[in-house]
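Checklist before submission:
- one chain only
- standard amino acids only
- sequence pasted in full

Submission:
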Amino acid sequence: MRLSILAFLLGVVLLQMQAELLGAGVYGGLAALLGLLLGTGLAFGTPSTALWRAFWRTLGAALLGFAWAGWLAQLRLADPLPEVWENREIALTGVVASLPQRFERGERFAFDVEAVHPRTATVPRRIQLAWYHGAAAGELDDEASDAGTVRPGQRWRFTVRLKRPHGNANPYGFDYEAWLLERNIRATGSIRGSGERVEDFVARPGYAVERLREAIRARFLGALPDAPYLGVLIALAVGDQRAIANEQWTVFNRTGVTHLMSISGLHVTMVAALGALLIDALWRRSRRLLLWLPAQQAAVVAGWLTAAAYALLAGFEVPAQRTFYMLTVVAAALLSGRNFGVLRTVLFALLAVLVLDPWAVLAIGFWLSFGAVALLLFAGSARLREPRGARAGLARWGTAQWAVTVGSLPLLLLFFQQFSLVSPLANALAIPVVSFVITPLALVFAVVPWPPLLVVDHWLLAQLMRLLEALADWPLWQQPAPPLWATLLALAGVLWLLLPRGFPTRWIGLCVVLPALCWPPPRPPPGEAWVDVLDVGQGLAVVVRTAGHTLLYDSGPLYGGEVNAGARVVVPYLRAVGVRKLDALVLSHRDRDHVGGAAAVQSALPVARLFTSIAELSERSGERCQAGQSWQWDGVRLAVVHPLAADYLLPGKKSNNMSCVLQVGNGKDSALLTADLEAADEQALRLRSPLASAVLVAPHHGGKGSSTPEFIAAVGARQVIFSAGYRNAFHHPHPAVLERYAASRQWRTDRDGVLHIVLAPAVADVSAWRETHRRYWYGR
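Returned file contents:
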């Protein structure tokens, strides 16, 4: 049974790695083959063929996992938004289905569609809507509306514009499309106008839970509206993490306690235990209740119900799911008088998560949470016979800390490319305080809204934050992402290291871990350059790497508030590919879709040289970029060809036409980076400089005021790249511009994801992330 569940997991993982789904009949055929395999294994199995029978059973379980996940995926993808209805105004009537997430420019929430007008329109049953505040939205994406206040369970009538699920596609980045698929959100969009509330509350269980979560959040906000760490307490009570400030997340990440600042399995277990203890104590006071049901069984039921309530209040995310399913198995065992064992309980919980949510394997939290439990079981299984007492308990606690710290290292390096060296100390301090004091007090306040409770709780959290902020100044272990094989090898080495004391040659485990810890970052050979046009939405960020140097050309857009492409896309990518410093940063001009992430990049990485046309930056901390600047890196020439020094003296010169234009070449081919250059300066540039390049990053994202036929002819690029946001409000790249580039191979970040250019001595080649790493939900 244990091996079969792990084989089922393997089948689910393999399905989620597929580029395309198979037909419904194929999954039915797999199910039939599964029945045949299981039937053969059971019918012909004899004691002498136990190994053969186990093989068929394992293969059948893997096929079942593959077929089950594929069948559910087909059902979910069968409710799409047709392309013909994208970016068109549609009138919808439906119900606000989730706790609204407020952000600087408005609020965002899930919406269950009940009626559509015109009736010919096809709209998915569940979508996600954003209601923008007029001024902010108009500045950023021309989707201004007068944002109102919505509550879960309300029925509204809106006019909306929708888009198919789409997110930025970058290596080591967050897959927003997979996240939407797991939550069955099949379109996203924005509300136009003011909307009309039809009904204040639609009585359904799911909506009632969300309304309760909203009421508790409002209770916290009303009691301490200006408290700096209130967002953490709200997250611990109802799972809403949006109110936690970015600088606080930085502290949690640097100290390795992020898992404690949201509702985790530890919190669910603790709350269930408190509920069980309370009911047990009260139940024993009533003889009538004891005659009706034993106190132990009543406590088990109470603990399970408490866990269910808390998990629902938390939004039922994967860590809460895993713990709830485990507690369900434990409760069933206790009520039935059977003992399933700890390992079997965990595996049954794993199976329940996979059956109900096969997309959970795409979440980092899934692997970290189940991995931590598995490591604790492995480390503790050989120490069950240790004597009891305070000393033995302290030893077991230390063993658990060691197991989780060392065991999680390979996965943390694979997923995040960094590891907190103070994580064991920080968790030793934070786990008991958060789990047994701060979280219970927050939950008591949610039930009994007495403000002094929240004041005390916030004060305790503030003292803990002071300690964590001091620990956050300690260095992090950072390195490039190791390959998957090195990570798997490191996991095997970790298990070897965690073998019982006295086991011979445990040091071999450390040797097996070393490849993941010392994996060298990939770099091009001398004379070759790698140019990556990152997918940052409506903006531009390009990474240029040679054998020993790195340049960043622009830093992507400011998405709003503190959220920017520098922190969300550029810095994680640079860290993953092993870039620890920038030899040059080029900020082409002042438009925030090009420099919105600059501050985040400069705070995360040392920058040797800064080139920019922004006067205040060049005077304060950088160099003015101007035609004629050039340098050699590892056999690759980088040259600035625009603007001229005289351009800085011209009054009223448009920011776009001051764009720093950079040419990267290896003597045979080159790539031309043009930022937002417009037609007039394209003309001047082609008359004074040789622009011939194999690859061109198109000016101004393909806007119709750029890319004149004469400029295109002067460059003569075989391949052209447009960096633009999906269905952006500016309609970049413009159809007329695409027609002008008809002779070139056209690439788009909104369609293709990050684009990788290899300027090799033989030929310049371009590859697209969404092609080389395609998944079946892309574009669906």
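Reviewer check: Residues 50-77 form the longest helix (28 residues).
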